[in-house]
Every structure is written in C-alpha cells, then in structure tokens.
Amino acid sequence: MTTDAFLADCRARLAFDLLSHTWNAVLIWCLRDGPRRPGELRERIGGISPKVLTETLRRLEFNGLVTRIAYAEAPPRVEYELTALGRTLLAPIEAFGAWAFEYGDEVMAAQERMGG
Q: Taking 70 as the threshold, does the pLDDT of residue 5 lie above it?
C-alpha cells in the first residue's frame, strides 16, 4: 500500500465505503448461509425497516455483492443471495466482528468518558 492508498479515488476507500453503510455488512452476514426472502431477512435482523432493507439490497446488488432471484410463481417470490464477490467479504466482516467483540467494551467506555 502506498502513501496515497486512502485518496478518494483509491480502491481501499471503495472497500471502506462498502462497509461503512450501517446495514451492508449486516445483510451480507445474514446471507452467508444461502438465499433469503426479504421477510426472512427482516426477521433475522430486527430493527430494519422494509424501505431501508430494499435500499440496502439494491445497493448491494448494484455493487455486485448480491443477486436478486425472482421466481415466476403466483404470488411472486423473490430471494436474495450473495454472489461469489459478496462471499469474499465474509472473512473481513467476521474479523471486524471479532475485533468488536474483543474491544467493544473499551470503545463504549471511551464514548461514555467523552459524554456520548
């Protein structure tokens, strides 16, 4: 990595931007075991509105991380699944989660000290 690694147009910034959206990593992690319908995702996640879920799934699809599968049934059925590219983010998300598990108390204590 060069000293210019974090410029606005660099690839590292692209990766950080992908994971900086609140729900991106959560949805990717929820899809790790296979395709899910939107209702299943809402149940597993909790706290995400249908609108935000749809926006996040579209953003992940736009970035090539998730694929939308529409079934020609009555009533219509839709599922979302990680692409091969999306699956490559599972290890970094897991590592970041492990970091949060180990150091989360320290971060929250610092926030409390600062009045947050």
A: no
CA distance 27 to 42: 10
Distance between CA atoms of residues 11 and 6, nearest Å: 8
pLDDT reported for residue 17: 85
Between CA 33 and CA 116 the distance in angstroms is 36
Contacts (Cβ under 8 Å, ≥6 apart) of 89 = 18, 19, 25, 28, 65
The residue among 15, 34, 4 whose CA lies nearest residue 95 is 15
pLDDT given for residue 4 in this prediction: 62
CA distance 4 to 30: 34
Whether the predicted pLDDT of 9 surpasses 70: no
Residue in the block written with tokens 């059925």: 77
Has residue 15 got a pLDDT over 90?
no
